[in-house]
Amino acid sequence: MIRSAALVLTLATALTASGAETPAPKPSAPKKFVLVRTGALVDVLQGRVLTGQDVLIEDGVIKAVGPNLVAPTGTRIVDLSGKTVLPGLIDVHTHITSQPEDYYADIFRRSPIDIAVTAHVYAKRTLEAGFTTLRVVGADEYVDVALRKAIDKGTVVGPRLKVAGLPIGATGGHGDITGFSPYLKFGGFDNVADGVDAVRKLVRQNVKYGADVIKMIASAGVLSEEESVGAPQYSFEEMKAICDEAAMWGRKVAAHAHGTEAIKRAVRAGVASIEHGSLIDDEGIRMMKEKGTFLVADVYNDDWILAEFAKMGYPEKIIEKERSVGRLQRENFAKAVKAGVRQAYGTDAGVYPHGFNARQFKYMVAGGLTPMQAIQSATANAAELLGWDKVGAIAPGRFADLVAVDGDPLKDVTILEKVSFVVKGGEVVVSR
Ligand SMILES: [Zn+2]
Question: How far apart are CA 233 and CA 126, in angstroms?
Fold first, then answer.
């Protein structure tokens, strides 16, 4: 009590002091200009490729785009006239703080502190692969919030992050740790909540500790030990409570949902995106189209899981679940593409090694997207899903986040797996 009273006093004094005096204006630092000359420029907002364009950047933000731009004296010129320039890429389904190495060690030997001290390595790797913005849909112990803060301050090198904090899941579900003795206890923040009041409270806690978005576990999953992949794990009322509470705080909800019924419940409850969407049926596709819900289908990582997870000691039960769902997911993704469901690029990075994010482009094109649509899913569409009009396109007012490649990614999207130039906020991060 005494301490809080003292704090109030201090605050009051500070407020009075700052109100009494107008601080002297700081001498403004000289503006920093960069002019990027491009060979081809991918205009994702109009779905076209332009040639002979310049991009003028002022203090990390795009000021103008057009031919033969005149830059103030002293402007740094970056010559990418031999390359194709695209907006910095966005992956909206990542777990940037960790990646699996060994089943036993992942669960029993790594502490949240181990995770916290290595997360920055994955962030840098991902940025250098051309992904300048990520949505992080679930991390233990709010390590994602800490990482975002460190990146925003410039202490750590990495993409811009929008983070979810703890993924909200039901007891015994995909977000819980199951399959062990009831006497084994895991410490730390609890991401499990059951019932309308408890799920609302966990949304509030996530917002309190820095979440930009809310992640809800609507159905069972693959990399966990519950029996099913697709069974719903929340009632409609619980899902609706999560969406309503998130909306009150100005947050969107991303729903992990493989199962047919869980997808529909989540769409009806008002989520912004369905993650995975593996077992979606025609009715679910129709509902998503009607509501404008984004599908975030991680159609690459099946290959990685089936090739690598047995070697890392993951239980056969988990690998068998991937076998049962992975191929179906690709077929159903193709159906959703054909029906015109909106797509945002999310790969579940952290299930496979960070930095391979661009490998999914090929699979999205195989599923029926044109290369331009696949690129839009990882730029303009992704920005729209994030609700962030500062990223996702090369246009005035947006952050100067750019990547460049040698060759034409609209002919061969795998070129995006080898970006040769990355700019974030007007600063060159990679130049090869
Ligand atoms: Zn995930």
Answer: 32
What are the angstrom distances between the C-alpha of 335 and each of 295, 332, 339? Answer: 12, 5, 6
Please check whether residue 262 is in contact with residue 219, taking contact to mean a CB–CB distance below 8 angstroms. yes
Which residues, 6+ apart, have CB-to-CB distance to 156 below 8 Å?
120, 123, 124, 147, 150
Region of poorest pLDDT, from 197-211, 218-232, 266-280, 300-314: 218-232
Residue with tokens 């990390």: 60
**Where is pLDDT greater, at 100 or 16?**
100
Query: How remote is the CA of residue 46 from the centroid of ligand 1, in Å?
Result: 31
Q: Token pair of 431, please?
A: 């130049």
- Give residue 27's pLDDT: 72
Torsion of CA 329, 331, 337, 339, to 10 degrees: -110
CB-based contact 266:218 (threshold 8 Å): yes
Please, what is the angle between helix 260-269 and helix 282-291, to 10°?
Answer: 20
Please tell me the distance between residue 293's alpha carbon and the centre of ligand 1 in angstroms.
18
**Residue 348 Cα to ligand 1 middle (Å):** 5
Beta-bridge mates of residue 135: 162
Q: If we measure between CA atoms, which residue out of 376, 367, 375, 385 comes closest to residue 419? A: 375
CA of 276 to the centre of ligand 1 (A): 8
The answer on pLDDT for 87 being more than 60 is yes
The rounded distance, in Å, linking the Cα atoms of 170 and 265 is: 15
Rounded to 5°, the CA angle 355-174-284 comes to 85
> 138 alpha carbon to ligand 1 midpoint, in Å?
7
422 Cα: distance to centroid of ligand 1 (angstroms): 26
Q: Is the dihedral of CA 354, 273, 295, 233 positive or negative?
A: positive
